Amino acid sequence: QTIPGVGPLTAMAVEAFAPSMDIFRCGRDFAAWLGLVPKQHSSGGKERLGKVSKEGQVDIRRLLIIGAMTRIAWVGRKPVQDGSWLDRMLKRKPKMLVAIALANKMARTIWAVLTKQEDYRGPAKTVAA
C-alpha cells in the first residue's frame, strides 16, 4: 500500500488472486502475467514490440490501471518532480498510454517489494552538482 497508486483494494487483490511471486523470474514476467507488457515479435536480435496484449489477470490489471489514472489525475494538484520519468512521459505521450506504462511500472515494483520482503522506497532525488 505504500507504493503510489496502489491502495488497500489493489494490495488485497494481489494477495488474493496472484500466485506466489517466487514463480516469476523477474518483474517483467509478473507484468506479462497481468497483461501489461507489449507482445514481442522479435527475431534475429532485432526487437519489435507490438500492442499491449491484455491477456492475463483482468482484476489486478484493471485496479493497477485505475490507480495509475488516479496518480496522473493528481498531477494537476500535486505536481511531480521536474525531469522525473512520469513528468517526461506526460509531456510527450497521451495520458492513457502513460497510465498503462505506469501500471506496468507499478506491477514491477509490487513484484520487487514482495520478493525482497522490503517496504517501498521512493526514487532517490538527484541533486545537481
General description of the model:
By secondary structure, the protein is mainly alpha-helical. The chain has one domain (8-40, 50-116). 50% of the residues lie in helices and 5% in strands. The chain has five helices and two strands; from the N terminus they run ααββααα. The protein has helices at residues 8-17, 27-34, 58-73, 85-92, 95-116; strands at residues 38-40, 49-52. A two-stranded antiparallel ribbon has the order 1-2. A hairpin with an 8-residue loop joins strand 1 and strand 2 (49-52). Helix 1 (8-17) runs antiparallel to helix 3 (58-73), helix 2 crosses helix 5 (95-116) and helix 3 crosses helix 5. The protein is globular and about 40 Å long. The chain starts with 7 loop residues before the first helix and ends in a 13-residue tail after the last helix. 24% of the residues are buried. The mean pLDDT is 81.
Radius of gyration: 15 Å
Distance between the termini: 34 Å
Strand content: 5-15%
The topology string of helices and strands comes to: HHEEHHH
Total helical elements: 5
Please list the strands of the largest sheet in the order they lie side by side.
Answer: 1-2
